[in-house]
Design brief:
This protein is α+β, with helices and mostly antiparallel strands. The chain has two helices and eleven strands. 19% of the residues lie in helices and 55% in strands. Strands 1, 2, 3, 4, 5, 6, 7, 8, 9, 10 and 11 form an eleven-stranded antiparallel sheet that branches. Strand 9 and strand 10 form a beta hairpin.
Length: 204
């Protein structure tokens, strides 16, 4: 008799635990979705990302992520590190994070690091594409590029620099509308959107 009751109590406990588990992880509140979004990023398939880490502080009342630090590394060994003082999740698309006071470090295999700073950025934690805007500075070795918009796709090994572009190195300065960069070869294409205008080259 007692043995039968014990078995029933165990089965009942399992049922209650299962109900709690389903509620806890599949029927999350809005605040839980905000907090656990970065955990979702970390669980991506290992075929795409070998290493994914993020650190942050949550201000759930204002929907802000403070002191965000995100690291990713793909199977080729390319690394992408991005940090921001203040960030905000887009509740309509949880893959998009809006950032303020941003700094990033891009390390492609067999290449020197590329450093980026900007006032603003939008980061996609699904495909890792990032658009830096407002007072953007890009530094690679002794080369510096200032602009208002910088788009980069690590997956496609492509970067695009636009809006008030000023490129400088020890040999001189170039003023143009757009610079397209192949992140693997470091080859670049510099041009003006208006074909009637010419790229300005100032030698030192």
């Amino acid at each position: 008799m007692w043995k039968k009751i014990s078995i029933q109590l165990i089965l009942l406990s399992i049922v209650f635990f299962s109900i709690f588990y389903v509620y806890k992880f599949y029927f999350k509140t809005k605040d839980n979705i905000k907090i656990n979004q970065s955990d979702i990023v970390q669980n991506k398939s290992s075929d795409d990302i070998n290493n994914n880490k993020s650190n942050f502080d949550i201000d759930s009342e204002n929907n802000l992520i403070k002191n965000l630090s995100y690291f990713s590394k793909d199977n080729l060994g390319n690394e992408f590190i991005i940090e921001s003082k203040n960030s905000e999740l887009n509740l309509d698309n949880l893959d998009i994070i809006s950032m303020e006071n941003v700094s990033a470090k891009i390390i492609m295999v067999n290449s020197e690091p590329i450093y980026v700073t900007s006032n603003l950025a939008k980061y996609n934690n699904e495909n890792y594409e990032t658009t830096f805007t407002d007072n953007v500075l890009i530094v690679y070795l002794d080369n510096k590029i200032r602009c208002e918009k910088f788009y980069i796709s690590i997956k496609n090994n492509f970067a695009n620099v636009t809006d008030n572009v000023i490129y400088e190195n020890p040999k001189g300065k170039i003023i143009a509308d757009t610079i397209e960069i192949d992140l693997i070869t470091k080859n670049s294409k510099i041009f003006m959107i208006d074909k009637n205008k010419k790229v300005m080259v100032l030698n030192k």
